[in-house]
Each structure stands twice: as structure tokens, then as C-alpha cells.
Write the C-alpha cells for this entry.
Amino acid sequence: MQRLLIIVGSLLVAVGLLWPWLSRLPLGRLPGDIHIEREGFSFFFPITTGLIVSVLITLVLWFLRR
């Protein structure tokens, strides 16, 4: 458990430091992400972004367990 917490903390620090460059990625604006805007209403459902993030997290965890 301690090792997992250290890894998660390190990843959060890395993402925080790399945020200026990571914010330029088109995540959240990919084809397949649903975005509906009407007068007084906005709905956003990032299907494609969620799938990509899920695959990346799965791959990272798979490599860490090996």
C-alpha cells in the first residue's frame, strides 16, 4: 500500500509540473466527445477521452505489476 501511495503521489506531482504542456493536448475535444450547447444549458460527456485515459491508466498499472 505504501508503494502505491508513493507512486500515485509522484504521478500527481509530475502531472502538476507538466500541466502547462499537458493542457495543450486535445483531450476533451476529441471526435466522439459529446458537447451540446443551448441557450442557458451546456452538456459535455467525454466518451473518447474517457476511453483513452482508461486505456493509459490500465497500461501503466499493468507495467507496474510486472
Observations:
- The chain has one domain: 2-65.
- The chain has two helices and two strands.
- The longest strand covers residues 34-38.
